[in-house]
Amino acid sequence: EFNWDAHKRSLVLGAFFYGYILTQLPGGYLASRFGGKWLFGGGVLCTSVLTLLTPVAARTSFALLIVVRVLEGIGEGVTFPAMHAMWGSWAPPVDRSRLVSVTYAGSQFGTVVAQPISGILCASTFLGGWPSVFYVFGSLGVLWCIVWFIFAHSTPDKHPRISPAELHFIQSNVEPKDEVLSVPWWEIATSKRVWAISIAHFCNNWGFYTLLTCLPTYLKDVLKFDIQQDGFMSALPYLVMWITINLFGLLADYLRQHNILNTTQTRKTMNAIGLSFPFCCTILFKAFFNHCSYAAAISMICLATAFSGAAFSGFNTNHVDIGSRYAGILMGITNTWATIPGFAGPAVVGLLTEHNVSKDQWQIVFYISAAVYLFGVVAYTLLGTGKEQPWN
What we know:
Blueprint lengths: L5 H15 L3 H11 L1 H25 L1 H15 L2 H12 L5 H28 L7 H21 L12 H10 L11 H5 L2 H30 L9 H27 L5 H27 L4 H15 L6 H9 L3 H27 L5 H25 L9
Helix pairs in contact: 1-4, 1-15, 2-3, 2-5, 2-15, 3-4, 3-5, 3-7, 5-15, 6-7, 6-11, 10-12, 10-13, 10-14, 10-15, 10-16, 11-12, 11-13, 12-13, 12-14, 12-16, 14-15, 15-16
InterPro entries: MFS, MFS_dom, MFS_Na/Anion_cotransporter, MFS_trans_sf
Main location: membrane
Membrane topology: Multi-pass membrane protein
């Protein structure tokens, strides 16, 4: 309908991240100060309403669409820090991995559901075809927010329906959080433990965004595969990752509960698995893809995403371990760094392959991703910890 060139399409996709990165740190602070319930719900509500307005904005002007996309990112940017702030009050140490993992796994499951449904809606005449995607998912987001505002609560002591036994268990295992009035910004900024999480978070997202946003372009333009023609196959890596995020969360808590590994060892092990296996797969991509079928290529991508699910029980849960009082702020800090690959990664890929889409040029892309993965493993292994920090 719009006949946008590649540059305009990249602007539309990247505009979200420009807004998203702006509210990571403010979102973490506000969630730690006032609780995550209203901030999280408000962020989703804002994004849902703007999603409903997207078709109108696109048909009005390209500039208005970019503004809407940036505002969507601003609304969505507070959600992960708010979620972490809530788990800082709700998640006992022995259940922390599975609880944090299952919430973040929802992002993958949403993609699994949304991709094939979006394809069906686009091909239909319902509400004009492609606009129906935004109307349907925007409406579902608004309805979900109503349920969230009714049933969710920032802390266990504010929940009117929690059982006395559960409240006692949580309060016995999770230190109560006073209102955050003074944040130890300098201590956090200079903490090598926070930098360990930030580096791992950045490296994981660099590889992940390259794997699932740029690799389909390689398969299509260089190898003449096109997984985007098949909604299910396009969603399959996300389905695999959704499953493994939950499984590794259960495994991590099992290792902790049975004293097989302590918290530090568990986090480092999960992080190493989550980044090392994609590192190996990325190294092998060119050699493997040159002599493989369509199904084998998808299987290789799924293998990489399967093991990357372990990282959610590594660095991604570690904020709550080292600083539960400031978990939202810590997530805001590390996710700020981790958002950069959302627009920098595709830009680097575009720079390397713009004038030459040969396999050799793409091999450079894969090697860069592999090096980033490896750096994340080494840095977190050397600097990471599962111990609560003195400034908490």
